[in-house]
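#lab-general

N.A. 3:47 PM
ok so I finally got the sequence cleaned up, no stray characters, all 176 residues accounted for. can someone with queue access submit it? mine expired

B.Y. 3:52 PM
send it over

N.A. 3:53 PM
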Amino acid sequence: MEYKSLDNFREGIYINFLKEGYAVWVETSGKSMEPVIREGDFVKIVPLKGEEIKRGEIVAFLRNEKMLIAHRLIKKEKDNLFTCGDSFIFAQDPPLKKEEVLGKVVAVRRNNKKKDLEKGFWYLYGRVITYLRIYGFPLLIILLSLYKIFTQPRISFIKAVKRIRLILHQSTSHQY
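B.Y. 4:20 PM
back already:
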């Protein structure tokens, strides 16, 4: 395997450890799993070891055989698993096979504080956001939009209202 950068080399090591059955802590990049996982957080990924994956859990898998992705499992149909980033309102990842899943994310470390995703608030959050994505799509759109709007610096109230209207208009024309 050839690596073009230190990041690719590091990612290859993580992938090999997971395939060998070892848990790894991985620094994240990207914003697809906000607010649970933010860019620069560290996530603990544990291999599955034959256990069943549950809807609402964050699973780690390979995209294009080289990029490690961690997204929430939102739906299971026969042999296919469907995942999506929490902050992706209208998008869904292409279907996965169970064999493609390398592990699941069980903890997040940010600013030397660890969040356990298998119990407490963050466990409940995962179940709620999965339920909303499947059954309460308009409410999910509003909640995620409010999060995005109010976490952006210096946004005016008028711009916020305009964005909410635009998002609501888009959601009425979208069938999930």
